[in-house]
Design goal:
CATH class of chain A: Alpha Beta
Distance between the termini of chain A: 10 Å
Shape of chain A: globular
Catalytic activity (chains A, B, C): 5-(2-hydroxyethyl)-4-methylthiazole + ATP = 4-methyl-5-(2-phosphooxyethyl)-thiazole + ADP + H(+)
Strand content of chain A: 5-15%
CATH topology of chain A: UDP-N-acetylmuramoyl-L-alanine:D-glutamate ligase
Number of strands of chain A: 8
Enzyme class (chains A, B, C): transferase
EC number (chains A, B, C): 2.7.1.50
Number of helices of chain A: 12
Oligomer: homotrimer
Family (chains A, B, C): Belongs to the Thz kinase family.
Pathway (chains A, B, C): Cofactor biosynthesis; thiamine diphosphate biosynthesis; 4-methyl-5-(2-phosphoethyl)-thiazole from 5-(2-hydroxyethyl)-4-methylthiazole: step 1/1
Order of helices and strands of chain A: HEHEHEHEHEHHEEEHHHHH
Structural class of chain A: alpha/beta
Chain lengths: 263, 263, 263
């Protein structure tokens, strides 16, 4: 866990290029901004190369893609590989919709990703482990979360973040569990998408250490949410999402160290 | 009025599939989530059938559609009919733009809707009653709101919600008026879109009783807004929209019963 | 500076038609609403003429356009010229991406704009002055902001707003500088887009005086943000964006006069 990445990214303010889920895009852009990165979004394939060149990481969200967008995602992923920029993939709802799983699996053969972030149902689907998924939620299954994360990471030669009450992060061999957080994250639709792009902000300054970037991003995000929830003292999803932006901007390494729970 | 639907939907957490207005989609998703449903949005026609199958209601918003999206909406409406899922239609701005009215009317012959929710100008246009509409707002006209709602409901064989300071809900024969609410709803752009999708959440657990679902959704939504406005005591549109999410999540049947005004 | 435009627009509630950046569209719509206008957004070229006719100003945001959207923007700009509606252009990221600069320059020969609003990097690019731009931010360059704004205004025969800690507004000959504001605007992704559309609201009621409309919109927006920041007393980007909506709705001419700093 390398909390100094938080200070480093705030000094460097790296640009993160996003293929966004239109449902959550504004929150994601504000979240990248609040933590200390610089978000850029693109919908037009003609500007992809210029965008990839000026960015330091690329976050690809499959939240509400169209067929046309898949070609754009593929081009962006390949260019990111070519220019050596880390690629974060968020495979939204691949656990629930077979069509989405097929698209995600095709993309994962078209270019190499650095980090995949999803919930248990999504990661299990990518790892081809049986898991009952329901809608955009994680579903309830009986698989071993650590084994699922490791299997997906090995299969796609990348780091995998399996998000949940406990985040499980694996590079295929090693595993870190982040136990901070709050159930309020589930009540806010953009939480997972925001985390995926924030992983991109950390990975942009991690000098190629995707595993450190992924762990640290999960810890900072989960701890920030936990701090907000503790201050609120009630289950207020609207107020939570607003104060999460405030906290992402102001949270310090020391604030996080005080409550950090990981192993 | 069947307030127990609120408890029921929170127990069942039904998935509602949405064709969304990109202007308000994030608020709509968070609103569905806050009240106790599970939102899913789709932009890709290839995944429509899988999405309809896993959903318990479908909410179709015509807020900012393109020609391509109309084909998607049509397919989704027909599949919802085939699989017996309730369909909510929000005919945004059909009172102001002739092109939109024509598209909406064509769609209403392509599949059967369960509930239409719009403002007076929109419902009057669908009912082909003269009414001066202006932009996205309701306009000011002199028609009898009850007659307009009944006419539209009879014409399209569905339940109609005519939203306004008083919501008028009709199945063509019977009429219920919900008199709760607050002018702050008008100051927040996504209010109507959010209500339409929340009607979908209620209809998902109403065992086919669209009329009860529509009334109850209107009462819960209007009363929640009124409670927030009373707590605020000032016309604060930003704070209102945030606290509305909090209230939708926490409001109880008892809270609503205390202030319910309908007949 | 004509602060009475604020009262006038609240009386008239003009419709402003927007081509929106999907990243910030909800905030922009709510901002137009909060200040006292009536927002309408469109994605479908078939309804462009009806939309332009019913609107009193048109705000064109190039934030995340696609090739298809460029044709839509062109048609909307030409129709706005034909019907005599003021046109505001927000050339997002033209300072950073050459493709975007080329598209914006082509559009600027296709129709006449009333006001261009951008940051220093964007306006410099349009004026073809060398300026180091970075991502969506203004970049840091050494050009003289006043000369850049004047050059762009002369070149495109329109009013130019060069936004920053000081807003520089020029019609090519005259220059006004608005010195109100707060660094919190930079922390909220939609601030510039919101200002551009709010310029449209002011221009809708300015009887053709684009220069007065531009100045006054900048002053009202910057002063509103400053008032919120002073009330907050801390760097809270989430809370700021919520309270900015409240302030845009409630701010009075007198509130602004008290702190107005321009020359």
């Amino acid at each position: 866990m390398k909390l100094s990445l938080l200070t480093k990214l705030r000094q460097q303010n790296p640009i993160v290029l996003n293929i966004s889920n239109f449902v959550t895009v504004q929150d994601v852009a504000n979240g990248i901004n609040a933590i200390g990165g610089s978000p850029i979004m693109s919908e037009e394939i003609a500007e992809t190369e210029a965008m990839v060149q000026m960015s330091r990481a690329v976050a690809l969200n499959l939240g509400a893609f169209t067929e046309a967008q898949v070609a754009h995602i593929r081009k962006m992923g390949r260019l990111a590989n070519e220019y050596g920029k880390p690629v974060i993939l968020d495979p939204v709802a691949v656990g629930a919709v077979k069509y989405r799983l097929e698209v995600a699996q095709r993309l994962l053969t078209d270019f190499q990703v650095s980090v995949i972030r999803g919930n248990a149902g999504e990661i299990a689907a990518l790892a081809e482990v049986d898991w009952a998924a329901k809608g955009i939620d994680a579903g309830e299954g009986s698989g071993d979360l650590v084994e699922i994360a490791k299997a997906a990471a090995s299969r796609y030669h990348c780091v995998v973040i399996l998000s949940g009450p406990t985040d499980v992060i694996s590079d295929g061999k090693n595993v870190v569990k982040v136990e901070n957080g709050t159930p309020l994250f589930q009540l806010h639709v953009g939480s997972g998408d925001m985390l995926s792009s924030i992983v991109g902000v950390f990975d942009a300054v991690a000098d190629g250490d995707d595993f450190e970037a992924a762990q640290t991003a999960c810890l900072v995000f989960a701890a920030s949410g936990q701090l907000v929830a503790e201050e609120l003292g009630a289950e207020l999803p609207g107020t939570f999402s607003m104060k999460l932006m405030d906290k992402l901007h102001l949270v310090t390494e020391a604030d996080i160290e005080k409550i950090a729970k990981f192993k």
